Amino acid sequence: MTNRPAVKLYSPALLGLATELSHFPLTQTLELRAEARSRSCGSVITIGLTLGADDTVSQIGMQVSACAIGQASAALMARSAVGAAPSAITMTTAAISRWLAGEGDLPDWPALELVAPALAHPGRHGALLLPWKAACEALSHTSGSR
Predict the structure, then answer these.
(1) Beta bridge pairs of residue 36
(2) What CA–CA distance (Å, rounded) separates 33 from 102?
(3) What are the two backbone dihedrals, phi and then psi, of residue 121, each rounded to the nearest 5 degrees?
(4) With 0-12 CB in 10 A as exposed, 13-18 as middle and 19+ as buried, what is 42?
(5) Which residue from 14, 84, 111, 144 has the least number of CB within 10 angstroms?
């Protein structure tokens, strides 16, 4: 039996992501809005998005009341969402769900590996998915409006 070091869930890099959320304030100018709430932990994320003329995300803002995993996941999504096509966000959300279920690899989204230690903590899976689900819900309001 080999003793492997445990991967630390709350690394300094992960905890530092929470401070990045201040760069993404939720403002009234963001056209597409949604809220996601975790039944298991009580976390809540309200997200606002605006799509540009090229139908990619041009602005994003959030109000986040979540644990460090939820905050980190929200920051990682937000920092790379501008310029992303809605389909990239929805496909990444589905891929994260598969990964958390043990049915796929960690999705290719910038710096998502920072939340990878949460895979071993099923109680944190909902918080990790929360901002992604909120973004998908907000983006679902675009059908037929553009």
Answers:
(1) 45
(2) 30
(3) -125, 85
(4) exposed
(5) 144
Answer for the pair 106, 112: CB distance below 8 angstroms, yes or no.
Answer: yes
Q: Name the pTM for this structure.
A: 0.89
Q: Over the stretch 71-92, which tens digit does the pLDDT of each residue have? A: 999 999 999 999 999 999 999 9
CA separation for the pair 8, 132 (Å, rounded): 23
What structural domains does the chain harbor? 14-139 (3.90.1010.10)
Instruction: At 3, list the tokens.
Output: 């003793």
pLDDT tens for the chain, 146 residues: list them.
444 445 677 788 888 888 899 999 999 999 999 999 987 778 899 999 999 999 999 999 999 999 899 999 999 999 999 999 999 999 999 999 999 999 999 999 999 999 999 999 998 999 999 999 999 999 998 754 44
